[in-house]
Structures are given as C-alpha cells and as structure tokens.
Description:
binds manganese (II) ion; 407 residues; five-stranded antiparallel β-sheet
Amino acid sequence: MxxxxxxxxxxxxxRIEHDFGESTNHAILIAYSEGETHHAPFHKDKQExxxxxxxxxxxxxxxxxxxxxxxxxDERRFEIAxxxxxxxxDTIFSEKMASGSLLKVDAAxxxxxxxxxxxxxxxxxxxxYSLIYRTIKRGxxxxxxxxxxxxxxxxxxxxxxxxxPFLPLWWLFTWATAERAPVVTAAALRLSEADESALQTKLTxxxxxxxxxxxxxxxxxxxxxxxxxxxxxxxxxxQVNTVGLGGFQTPHNFRKGIGVYMGEACRTDAPVWxxxxxxxxxxxxxxxxxxxxxxxxxxxxxxxxxxxxxEHYVKEHIDGHDVAYQLAVCLGDFKGGELxxxxxxxxxxxYDNTRKFVQLDGRLPHRVEPFIGVRFSVIFxxxxxxxxxxxxxxxxxxxxxxxxxxx
Length: 407
Ligand SMILES: [Mn+2]
C-alpha cells in the first residue's frame, strides 16, 4: 500500500465512524481485475454468533463495511441473498456499487443471509477494489490496553483529572489527622492509697525478679511465631491440658477432654526465682483482687519479656480457653508497648498498664503496640475455676465478677 492509499483507508474508517457511529479496527483491500475468475462466491463473514465452521474473528454484533472504488469509475454488482441448499431463493439486495460508495452489512444480515460478488464476464482489464472494514477480536492484553486508553480518554480534561493528583495528599492528611483511640492512663482497678503504695513496693520487687529470670524460651503460637515472638515466656498456676497428660489427670468441670493441673501451683523444690515470682504475684493479687484467687487459688500467671523492638511482638490474638477476665500489668523500662484491646461493644481501647493493672477479657482480640526498651508483662488469667459451672460471660468492663456461680 502506498502512503496515499493508507491515508485513504484511514479516511474510510473515519467516514464509517462519522456516518454510522461504529468504530472498526481492521481493513482488508481486495482487488478484482478479471470478471470470470475474480469474484467472490456466496459466503457469510466469519463472526461470533454466526452459524459457520472455523474461527470466528469478527466481534459479535459488529457490522462490516464495503467501500467500493474502481479505476475508471466502473460499477460492479454486489448481492445479498437467501440461500437454501446452495440455491438462491430470494435476493434481498442487488446493486451496482458506484465507485466511492459505502455499504454497511450489519451482524443480523450477515447471520441471516449470504453475500457475494457475482461473476461479470464483461469485466476485463479494469480494477475494482473492495476495501472491507471490520471489527475483529483482540487478545486480552490488547483489550486491557484499549480499556485503559478508554479510561484515560474519559478522564482527559475532566474535573476528576484535576482532583486525582491530590488524592495521595488527601489520604496522607486524613491519616495524619485521624482520631486515634486515646491511651487510658488511669488504672482500671482503683486501690486505696495505702494499697496502692503497697502494690508499688511489690511491683518493684517483682520487676527486680523478672530481670533475673534465666530463660530463653518463647511462647509460640500453633503456627510458629504467628502471634507471639518474645525474648522469653513462662507460666505457672492452675493450668489445663489434654486430660490424662502427665499432671493433668483431673477432668475439667465443664470442658470435655480437658484436664486440670491440681498439684501445687509452685512446688517447694522449684528454683528460687520461680518461687519468688509466684509468691510476689500471690501477694499482689491479694491486694488488687482477692476474690480472683479465691481460697483454692484457681488461677494462672504468665510472665514474658520483650527487649528487641524489631524482633519481638505480640500480635492480635484471643485467649480462647479463658473462663474469666485477665488482669495485666507491665514492668521494665520501655516506651510504647500499650495494650490495645477490643471491647465487648466492638470498639478498641489502648491501655497504658505500666505499673498499674488493667482488667481485660482475653477472649476478645488484643495485642501489644510497638515498643522500645525492655518490657515485662505479667498477666493473671483463668482457664479453670472450681467455683464456676461455666465460663463467665465475656466482658471488658472493669468490674468484679461473681465467683459463686456453682460448684
Ligand atoms: Mn493474650
């Protein structure tokens, strides 16, 4: 094709778009210069939705257009007909196409009828061109590019285009000014002045004992390190496990298949540091919530240390085996590391529980905020209590529970 004929083909596509409102994406030029051998037999163009064999490269529902032109302005006939068993039963279109004429054949016509360029014995030495425009199917990548172009076209010069570049700034602004949950600094559990002073003394002793813990083991989740990664973790008290497992012979009073450790919470032959931790905690519990321990001492204490702000974390989790609320305190020398707890009403609350106890419900999601320094965590929790016939209702309100439910 010469540059000029290429421009002519382009002009044809523009004319189709202007006259018929359909944009085509493909054009093929066919030349007929001899009337007997150069013709087109009855056929339908291969189109999706048109009954035919073979590949169907035309887009379903699209039309094709025949732009006719010839050397000396001669006209050649084009026909559309109904055909049964290869025989014409009804000719619905038969015209000598003038040079420069444009014929539209829509998808319904292509599907229902057959078209052809009949033989013309008188046609010799002249050239008749059919420039046929179609919409053919594109590959996925091509269609995606076209879709993106369409979107870009839609936005070009529009109001949205003026606003779009500022969206990241807007997000940044809303993020920076968003209302954060305030850190609750008041202790959830209020004590008298005398008890508070006694508590602080005991917390200082507990803190010193925690610094001396010679452990290196971590608490890990079922999926390794999913929720917990700590310098060390250690627990003692009225713990539970699969019933029958060494030390867990006593069946839980309402949890099937669970056994309770009924031995001494802290054996007399345990290392000094373990006894020190346990006894200090028992004294602390006596101060802050004596009914939590009860006479049987059905509770556990969990101790943990985090000291690497990049490596250590407690991600959001629930302590699903709990049968009551927890009491949590933090010791050490650190910044951040607040407790973020989901409350019973679905909102979340951030607690600074440094050197003061917060009551939370471990059966609601909770986690530790990023921290820097050395952070010890001491948590009282319960997975068994002989005074309870069933778990206490989930509650995040700092109020006293009723322990005399049943036996
Ligand atoms: Mn927890």
